[in-house]
Design a protein that fits this description.
Number of helices: 26
Structural class: alpha/beta
Number of domains: 5
Radius of gyration: 29 Å
Distance between the termini: 74 Å
Strand content: 15-25%
Oligomer: single chain
Largest sheet: 8 strands, parallel
CATH class of the largest domain: Alpha Beta
CATH superfamily of the largest domain: P-loop containing nucleotide triphosphate hydrolases
Length: about 750
């Protein structure tokens, strides 16, 4: 039986015909938002005998492979007793700049549809029509050509011929991959306690196309326990792709290490890591313009060779590997990583590539998602991240600047109307500096839609200075983002207005992201939410869109409680008591390090509080080395901070850090690199307008509003920080929790079992 290569008409022609450069001077958002409307507008003019969205498929045998090619043509028309394939394309460009030969890729797509239809209906010739619609002016332009069946057949065979080396490479890779997976054993000699149970639950979840919430303690080996069963499911044909989603670079590296470990045990599987564009860009400025960047210029002329090259040589493709091949082929490393991700077996990336409506990978269609599993690491972080992804805000100052810059321009009146809207908002907030509304600001949305249309025309024809264009682009994208979020708005949102001096800020704020997370995740075959701190579990199920049908599992710690000594120092760390309790904290810290020399991390709820204690502690004992987390540290500075924690050091070390910051999650200081963790405070988010709106919302929906807005997110930071200490069976150490609230029943109920046998200092 011949191997089947299933692909869409669009994928086939894009592979062969894509050419030219990445050029982000300005690419209109209109085709994304208005493309479907444009198609429908044209299709509504069709005659009764015409057909629209016609599904077509065919099979072509070539070089011992059977190509299954399918797609939907926009229109199938009858004109003068002849069949016409109509391919509709929408654009914001001036149609005078488009002629018959401008876009060969559009002709190619239509010709494939024409071939399939002619073949199925035994026709000797077909007419092919391209219809271009200018989305702002609604002007149309059409081109039509006639092809014989022989011409169409020769053309399609040539396409398949060009595609076949890539198809053969992918087919042979899948054969090797599946064989290697079938032979793959768990990459450690034994499972840790609870690890086999977790891996089995993940495999069952994927097999049964379900969702699971897994609370598994730090040190159990969660990463390999989720990836390994997913890989096994792929080898059995249950999955085509795995997404491993993380919130931080350091946890991405842990996933890479897990794949590398399995590679050393014989796994042959392609895994690609996506890194943010500004981090991988080779140029001083991230400007994707062919005149400025040689890696953008001619990108699409070289990408196919680069993809064939890297997949012929590599399996685990991290940032360094992508950069190496990107330089070799002179292509943009970021766009290269996206193209690789589209065909890789596993993708390691940030949450936003799946959940953020402004960033998500649009090229992954629903049919791909149904064969894909999401493994969501440190899933507790997704709650606040998703809340922000699904929110959108605008500021008056941006539009006031535009009003000044574009005086006399057709854009001016649109910007002026938006500025007036903000002035009226400010007047409405004369008594209070905040205002909360339940509805979508419909009047503002209409003004923004007019602004977006005028801004598109200005940007397409722009002769403005670069700084002026950047100013307009920033507001254009902010406006399109606001309009996009307005379409998601429901009872889980509020709109709030804040006024500070002359600034007015209006934000559509997603209070509860659970429904939108659920809507996205259910498009995938299976979703695995896992973390060491999904506590309390019901809270996280509520916030991440869990249902009664979803699986849950809670794995007890594999480590003995004797490995950790837990102390509570019942002092008040409330804001107004901090000066009074600073001295007892410093005394406790000195005594602890004197009695148990070693390396310690002490976490504070704010930079200001941390700096205050640090300044009083430094120099108190010259034999103690002290380092402190700085705001906005670079990756190199973070790594240097962690390198200071060395085992068997001659001097004790105390690292001062911020609770919920870069060193309180994902940091793995094994053995004597870390001997103790001190957590100052219960981690409550700062009292603020947004959190109080959330508190009121959850209270009104029958939950404990304060706990949902403050207590649970705060305690999660405490649990994460404490989890830095015990990472293996050999680790021992001390945890000190500094706050009298830790002794209340509310907090004691949230302690993991291994913390409950504590002593009071």
């Amino acid at each position: 039986m011949l191997p089947e290569i299933k692909l869409s008409v669009r994928s086939l022609v894009e592979y062969v015909f894509s050419s030219g450069s990445i050029d982000h001077h300005f690419r209109t958002a209109t085709p994304l938002t208005e493309g479907t409307k444009a198609h429908k507008a044209i299709q509504n003019t069709y005659q009764e005998t015409d057909q629209k969205e016609v599904f077509l498929k065919t099979e072509i045998e070539y070089k011992k492979m059977n190509f299954l090619i399918e797609g939907r043509c926009d229109g199938l028309l009858i004109r003068d007793d002849q069949m016409v394939i109509d391919e509709i394309k929408s654009t914001s460009k001036d149609l005078s700049g488009i002629d018959e030969d401008t876009y060969p890729i559009h002709w190619a797509q239509a010709r494939v549809y024409a071939y399939i239809y002619a073949k199925d209906h035994h026709l000797q010739e077909m007419n092919v029509q391209l219809t271009y619609l200018q989305v702002v002016t609604e002007e149309q332009k059409q081109f039509r050509m006639k092809f014989t069946m022989r011409e169409l057949e020769d053309f399609v065979i040539e396409l398949v011929k060009c595609y076949s080396p890539y198809a053969m490479l992918m087919h042979e890779h899948r054969l090797r991959r599946d064989e290697s997976i079938n032979n793959l054993a768990f990459p450690f000699d034994t499972y840790r306690e609870g690890q086999r149970k977790l891996a089995g639950a993940i495999y069952k979840t994927i097999s049964e196309e379900k969702t699971i919430f897994a609370n598994a303690p730090t040190g159990i080996g969660k990463t390999i326990s989720t990836i390994f069963p997913a890989v096994k499911a792929m080898g059995e044909g249950k999955l085509e792709r795995i997404f491993y989603l993380t919130a931080k670079t350091i946890t991405r590296q842990t996933a890479e290490e897990a794949f590398s470990l399995m590679k050393n045990k014989g796994l042959c599987m392609s895994a690609v890591t996506l890194t943010a564009k500004d981090k991988v860009c080779f140029k001083e400025e991230t400007r994707c313009q062919k005149e400025y960047c040689e890696f953008a210029n001619g990108y699409y002329d070289r990408i196919n060779d680069a993809v064939l090259d890297i997949f012929s040589q590599e399996t685990f493709i991290n940032r360094d590997t992508i950069e190496k091949y990107a330089r070799k082929h002179t292509i943009c490393p970021f766009e290269f990583s996206l193209d690789l991700a589209f065909v890789a077996d596993a993708i390691i990336c940030d949450y936003n590539y799946i959940f953020d409506p402004k960033v998500s990978l649009k090229r992954f269609f629903d049919e791909h998602k149904k064969q894909t599993a999401l493994l969501i690491d440190e899933a507790h972080n997704l709650v606040d991240r998703a809340r922000e992804m699904f929110s959108a805000g605008l500021k008056k100052s941006a539009f006031l600047l535009l009003k000044r810059e574009y005086k006399g321009s057709p854009l001016y009146e649109s910007v002026n109307q938006i500025n007036k809207y903000f002035i009226e908002l400010k007047k409405a907030c004369t008594v209070k500096e905040e205002q909360v509304l339940k509805e979508v600001p419909e009047d503002l949305i209409k003004l923004l839609e007019e602004f977006v249309m005028q801004a598109e025309l200005e940007l397409v024809q722009s002769t403005s200075s670069e700084s002026k264009e950047v100013l307009l682009l920033d507001s254009f994208f902010a406006a399109t983002g606001y309009i996009r979020i307005a379409k998601l708005y429901d009872e889980r949102y509020v709109t709030y207005v804040e006024v500070e001096k002359n600034e007015v800020h209006i934000k559509m704020f997603c209070l509860d992201p659970s429904f939108l997370i659920q809507q996205i995740s259910k498009k995938f075959r299976s979703t695995v939410y896992f973390s060491a701190t999904l506590l309390p579990l019901q809270y996280f199920m509520d916030m991440l869109g869990g249902t009664q049908e979803d699986y849950t599992i809670s794995i007890p710690s594999p480590f003995a409680k004797e490995q950790t000594d837990v102390f509570i120092q019942p002092l008040s760390t409330r804001y107004h008591d901090r000066d009074d309790t600073k001295r007892p904290i410093i005394d406790m810290l000195s005594k602890l390090v004197m009695q148990r020399p070693g390396n310690y991390l002490i976490f504070f709820p704010s930079y200001q509080y941390m700096k205050s204690v640090y300044d009083d502690f430094v120099g108190r004992d010259p034999s103690i080395q002290v380092i402190i987390q700085q705001p906005s540290m670079t990756e190199a500075e973070r790594e240097q901070f962690l390198r200071e924690f060395q085992p068997e050091s001659s001097e004790p070390l105390i690292g001062f850090a911020v609770l919920g910051g870069i060193f309180s999650e994902g940091v793995d200081l094994k053995g004597d690199r870390l001997n103790g963790v001190i957590v100052v405070g219960v981690g409550l988010p700062q009292l603020c307008f947004e959190r109080n709106i959330m508190k009121d919302y959850f209270q009104d929906t029958g939950k404990n509003g304060y706990d949902y807005a403050y207590t649970y997110p705060g305690m999660n930071k405490v649990l994460q920080a404490g989890g830095r200490l015990i990472r293996s069976e050999a680790d021992t150490g001390v945890i000190v929790l500094v706050d009298d609230r830790f002794l209340t029943q509310k907090y004691l109920r949230l302690f993991p079992p291994e913390w409950r046998d504590f002593e009071i200092v």
